[in-house]
Write a structure and sequence with these properties.
The protein is mainly alpha-helical. It is built from 20 helices and 13 strands. It binds one RNA strand of 76 nucleotides through helix 4, strand 5, strand 7, strand 8 and helix 6.
RNA sequence: GGUCGGUUCGUCUAGGGGUCUAGGACACCGCCCUUUCACGGCGGCGACACGGGUUCAAAUCCCGUACCGACUACCA
């Protein structure tokens, strides 16, 4: 039985890259009929927050990735991690390091690392820790005396670790490039590599699918597996998702755009976003981009995952490009092509939260409502559009887009009298359907010696508040006779 | 600094020695449709990082260089 896990650390919201990792784990599990598990890696007490855990869970729930078993909280396993470290110590596979903890000072950690490495240039022997071969009795005595110590893994003097990554192929690393890594901090806290390995063993994980940033960690983890006497799982490392310019996507500099909840709140459909994410770093090798979840599951395979990082394209200075164009396009594609019945619940939620929902839409006005949604969704990109651009269809209290007014209304002052006149004329219509309306409007335009387009565009501005929308006659029909005439006669738009 | 990984249109990608004058999608531009439009249709722009090999033949294999990324922590 294949068992995979998604293991985020709760130090922020669900990051777009993490969401993609979760997706791939989920797709793989479903594809092979295995289990998809979730583990919250909250061992970093200084940075982990409950708020973050909640946000991650919310993001996963929105995407629809429910774990098949109880969620594991890594911090709760700390006693087991300590026991594992103690065992390795006992067996002589790890040792106590009494070196006092070094503070990094005010330099950034990265800088400190690079500086140290540069200074050591090629002369550093990673096996030269003075406590590595401290006699057991002495080590025990010092520990008993209360001297603080960290526990480090005793990496063998020479040899190499190697594994075959499902994405990157065979990889190996010399022991002399791997430091005797700390398993347990001097304050007793287990560190990442130990915790991950222990938990993966405990959870029976068979395949680890995670970001490529863990590629080099994998060698250290394999060393821990070996020390613990456990067989390592299979590994598949995913290419990273970067910001434009090839930089790492980060909360600090890129803000909300990296958070999953942003997309939910912006009116994205989870199905569309999953589809978009699936194509970032993976492809089925076909010339097509729309895949249902079932199709994704069926076609997914580790060996079609890319080795090169992908750029998530957006322009924070351009509101139209606030996120990746393709993601927006895909969402629009879903909105206009998915079965209407599947879309309706989402529209309902959106209208409800905008206080535009009326229960009649599911009762007396069901037909009107469904027809209307079906017509207006044609030009929409997100669920938000139903309550923003589409507001005029559901409420008398809607805003007018200034650009639409300038371009289609105010440019033709005659419309100020024409539109109310047209409204008057429309009163006489007995049958409120396409042909009669069209004929009347067309005749009206001709009488006044103007192009039909001028009347139509002006009417659109006044009736819907925007310049974009379905066929104008359809707007008349949707709005109905009474509301159409009322808005044609209204002068409010002229005073804005 | 070291180790490892990566590099095809602006972006996501197809391709894995000949079918590649490199295919698709998004974006962009043009035309058509149309009463408007960010729908639709048609078309256009646009890429194998660079240099050496190997080969009859290289985007595809090898080497080097450049660039990018990750790791190099008592962070995860």
């Amino acid at each position: 039985m294949i068992r995979v896990r998604f293991a985020p650390s709760p130090t922020g919201y669900l990051h777009i890259g993490s969401a993609r990792t979760a997706l791939f784990n989920y797709l793989y599990a479903r594809h092979v009929g295995g289990k998809f598990l979730l583990r919250i890696e909250d061992t970093d007490i200084a940075r982990s927050t409950e708020e973050s855990t909640r946000s991650i869970l919310e993001g996963l729930a929105w995407l629809g990735f429910a774990p098949d078993e109880e969620i594991v909280y890594q911090s709760e396993n700390a006693p087991k991690h300590r026991a594992a470290a103690a065992r390795l110590l006992d067996e002589g596979k790890a040792y106590r390091d009494f070196t006092p903890k070094i503070e990094t000072g005010d330099k950034s950690i990265k800088e400190a690392i690079v500086e140290r490495a540069r200074a050591n240039q090629g002369v550093k022997n990673l096996r030269d820790n003075e406590y590595r071969d401290l006699p057991k009795a002495e080590s025990d005595a010092r520990a008993a005396a209360g001297e603080p110590f960290a526990i480090r893994l005793k990496v063998p003097m020479d040899g190499t670790t190697s594994f075959t990554d499902a994405v990157y192929g065979p990889l190996d690393r010399n022991y002399d490039e791997i430091e005797d890594l700390v398993l347990l901090r001097s304050d007793g806290h287990p560190l990442y590599n130990l915790a991950v390995v222990c938990d993966d063993i405990e959870m029976g994980i068979t395949d680890v699918i995670r970001g490529q940033d863990h590629l080099t960690n994998t060698h250290k983890q394999i060393l821990i597996y070996e020390a613990l006497g456990a067989a390592p799982p299979r590994f598949a490392h995913l290419p990273l998702i970067l910001a434009p310019g090839g930089k790492k996507l980060s909360k600090r500099i890129h803000g909300e755009i990296v958070s999953m909840t942003t997309y939910r709140d912006a009116g994205f459909l989870a199905a569309a976003f999953r589809n978009f994410l699936a194509l970032l770093g993976w492809s089925a090798g076909e010339e097509r981009e729309i895949y249902s979840m079932e199709e994704l599951i069926e076609k997914f395979s580790l060996d079609r995952i890319h080795q090169s990082n992908a750029t998530f394209n957006f322009d924070s200075n351009n509101p139209r490009r606030w996120t990746d164009d393709k993601a927006i396009w895909m969402n629009a594609e879903y909105i206009r092509t998915m079965p209407l019945g599947e879309l309706l619940p989402f529209v309902k939620d959106e209208l409800k939260s905008a206080k535009l929902w009326r229960d009649e839409y599911e009762d007396d006005e069901k037909t009107w409502f469904e027809t209307t949604i079906d017509i207006i969704r044609e030009r929409f990109f997100t669920l938000k559009d139903f309550s923003m651009q589409g507001r005029a269809y559901f409420s008398e209290d809607f805003d007018f887009d200034q650009a639409a007014l300038d371009k289609n209304l105010k440019k033709f002052p005659d419309l100020r009298t024409w539109l109310p006149e047209l409204g008057e004329r429309l009163e006489s219509l007995n049958e409120w359907t396409h042909d009669p309306i069209y004929n009347l409007v067309a005749a009206f335009a001709e009488e006044n010696g103007t192009k039909l387009g001028v009347i139509m565009n002006g009417a659109r501005a006044v009736l819907s508040g925007v310049a974009v929308g379905p066929s104008m006659i359809a707007v008349f029909e949707i709005l109905g006779k009474e509301r159409s005439i009322m808005r044609l006669k209204s002068q409010v738009a002229w005073n804005l």
